[in-house]
Amino acid sequence: MQAEVKQTDQEVKHAEHSEFVSFTVATQAFCLKITQIREIRRWSPVTILPHAPADVLGVMNLRGAVIPIYDLSARFGLQQTEASERNVVIVVSVHGKPVGLLAESVSEIISINPDDIQDTPPVDSRNTMEYIQGIISHDDTMVRIINLDAVISAPEQVMP
Amino acid sequence: MSGSIQDTFFEECEELLEATDEGLTAIEGGDHNPEVVNAIFRAVHSIKGGAGAFGLDDLVAFAHRFETVFDEVRSNRLDLDEKLIQLLLRSSDHLSALVEVARDGGQIDEPHHDTLLAALDEYIPEEEEDLTFEPMGLGGPAPMMDLGGLGGVPAKPQEETYRIRFQPLKEMYGTGNEPFFLFQALKDLGDLTVKLDENELPGFDAMDMDEAYLAWDLVLITKEPRSVVEAVFEFVEGLCELSIAGDGDAEAEANALAALDAMFSAPPLPEASLEAAAAAEGEAPAAPFEAPVPAPVPEAKPAAAEEKASAPKAESGKQEQRGGPKPTLRVELERVDRLINAVGELIINHSMLAQQIANLNVSDTRDVETELEGFKNLARDIQEGVMAIRAQPVKPLFQRMARIVREASAATGKTCKLVTEGENTEVDKTVIERLSDPLTHILRNAVDHGIEKPEDRESAGKVRTGEIRLSASHRSGSVCIEIRDDGAGVNRPRVKQIAIEKGLIPENAELTDGEIDNLLFAPGFSTAKEISNLSGRGVGMDVVKNAVTGLGGRINISSAPGKGSTFTIILPLTLAVMDGMVVSVADQTMVVPITSIVETMRGSDDMINSLGADGTLLSIRGNFVPICDVAGALGLYRGSDQQAGVYLLVETETGQRCALAVDDIHDQRQVVIKSLDGVCGEIPGVAAATILGDGKIAMILDPESIIAASPTAAAFDTERRMSNAS
To answer: Are A148 and A76 in contact (CB under 8 A)?
Structure first.
């Protein structure tokens, strides 16, 4: 009887956990909720969009759909990624549209208890504050949780 | 479930309203054919019937009045004068509005509703104020269908025997009609004998549940004229085999035939007419009557009488032949779109296959190539077929526009009429849908700003009624829509003044007439002195322009003071595919629409002439054309080994020519257009994207905006204009 109750407790606790996919961008660890990710692909050269800002790498053909690819590193204000075959494109769905995010490499899937998520401490970088939803400690490294809606704002204007 | 039935009702309503509009437009144009009036009557009646089923009382009440007035018209008790036609047009608009309210919710315009009801009531005789659902005309003689005056049958009420053979088709049951109610309605007319003919009824094992096997032979003795009897079957027209033979008819026909016989001295025909033949067909043992045999009549009637008698016959023959509209299928748009996407993928897939085979390095690929060619042709066939499904005539759109013009005229106190041309021009459905708003805006503007007040028109020596001509036509792979008004034209000094006031142009700007006209499209421009009810709601013609360019089209305005303005909208035939030239620019593969390319050439150094510091001109057979480097305009950088050596001579809408410099030309092929909407914002110089044979994405260029972005070409254009001006 008691054992059963204990098991349900565990289940409840387990259900509270969410799974995140962690990856590195410019040697820093980031993660996204697994439900936000549609697929992960190997990098292949993209078609350049004229007049696009530095963090928009171009567009890619995803089974007949044209999707934009962003360089997460440049987006976060870090150095631009020299994209190569070793890099990955994480396809996510933002504002109902698929979007590709270039990351250095994917690390692992981690299970996070929402209680363990810490608020982003104030630092002197507006980009960071906007783009990072929170941070967690995993295996003694800091993993930043990306606020996808802020990183990829609704269809934007590319100015010449 | 009831929701979906209601959806179907509203869909049908739309078609019926279109039919009503179409009929009214025909009547307005002077066509007072009874068939047209009948068609409108039936359409309105069907709307009323459906609305009744869903308890839409306002709609029912209004449709009833409307219908009753039409009934008066078709029984020739009302003359279709100008005033009545205008009322009917406004009523039809209001009926559409009521349907919209019923479908989408919202408020009906009560005062307007009541005014129209009162106006309609004026045309309705007292005793017809009831709200019955009798599916037929409300009695009274209807001379236009009446045969009573012929063959010596007097027009005054007299007992008449009609033998009716009625054989419903299965479609009739499918539309929910019940023979019983028809018989009941007939019974109200007089003495009715019904006899069932079940001869065609097969055994149980051979019976198809959905088939119709029964027929009825009816004998009706009534004082009512034939038209009233026919009216009972009005709503099953085309859904049943029907023949109505009256004793008087037989006589009339006999007379006519005898006249014919006398003329040709041929032996008497055994069957009297088409109808009689049809009746004879049903001559089963149980049939209560024989086919009428013409009784010889001694004196020959004049040929005119014969003609008269046969005219209604011809009509009934025509109706039989028509037998209802062509079968159509209602399909959700989304399904068609999925198919279009799939076909698009198929074409891309074909290109990929072709490329893969070419890369295989196999010596003999002839067989494969033949098959591949077949594949390509099939894919194209499918694509054209699917595109044809989406293509629709612009007629419904134009009809809606007539309503806009009426409303706008009423609101501004001006009189204008809309003349439409090329209504059967077929355009992609999306284009039609997305054209509705810009067209509405242009037409409102034309009424509000273009057409003058009647008095002003008179003093300017024009007819009081302004004319707006809306036309559609196909023009070499694109669709051209023109809106031409005969109003005052663009008030250029005023437009310029406003543009200066609003800071759109510098005060000392020297502009050509065309440029001033095009200021109308500038964002935030509105010429109305006060914000009128119609146009000038803060959004201006720039919205129109954006909508049109969003469809891959262009809009132009030309205007002559005192004579009017013309807006020309050029749109691609389809939004899904186009023919393009595949070129490479700074290592990137791009596509240039074939339609904009006049000529292509490989340039040599001696063809290039410098002009100023960095302007270059290409000399083509003695003409100098500015060169626009595509790479430069797009902000791309060429490697040292790359050089622009190929020129595409393009011509813009305004007739300006420019040579686009690209690195190389690879191919000319049909490409599937993939919109960049939602992928990124608007990119100057790029219209859309496509997927090439290798699976890579290529940008589809917009030559016009590339030229605009290129400093050389733009500068040259200004220079040329200045030299022209001086």
So the answer is: no
| Closest-CA residue to B518 (of B496, B535, B547, B487) | B496
Burial readout B588-597 (b: 16 or more C-beta within 10 A, e: otherwise): bbbbbbeebb
Contact A49 B683 (CB under 8 A): yes
Q: Retrieve residue B64's tokens.
A: 């009833």
- Domain membership flag for residue A8: no
B15 to chain A, closest Cα gap in Å? 34
- Count structural domains, chain A: 1
User: The CATH number of the domain where A67 resides is what?
Assistant: 2.40.50.180
Over residues B483-495, the pLDDT tens digits come to: 998 888 888 888 8
Interface pTM, i.e. ipTM? 0.77
Nearest Cα to Cα of residue B468 among B404, B518, B531, B424: B404
For residue B525, give both structure tokens: 């421009």
- Evaluate whether residue A13 is within a structural domain: no
The answer to whether residues B653 and B570 touch, using CB atoms and an 8 Å cutoff, is yes
Supply the range of the domain harboring residue A134. Answer: 19-151
B691 membership: H or E segment, kind and range: strand B686-691
C-alpha B412, offset from chain centre:
27
**Which residues in chain A are contacts of B341 at CB distance < 8 A?**
64
Q: Which segments within chain A are labelled E, that is strand?
A: 18-25, 28-33, 37-42, 56-62, 65-71, 88-94, 97-103, 105-112, 132-138, 141-146
DSSP structural state of residue B236: G
Alpha carbons B646 and B581: distance in angstroms, whole number: 12
Residue A59 lies in a domain: yes
Q: What is the pLDDT of residues A100-111, one digit of tens each?
A: 999 999 999 998
B487 in Cβ contact with B450 (< 8 Å) = yes
Residues of chain B in contact with residue A67, where contact means CB-CB under 8 angstroms, are 679
Rounded Cα–Cα distance for residues A100 and A39 (Å): 9
Q: In A, which residues are within 8 Å of B694 by CB distance? A: none
Q: Does A44 touch chain B (CB under 8 A)?
A: no
- Measured between alpha carbons, how far is B43 from B27 in angstroms, rounded to an integer? 15
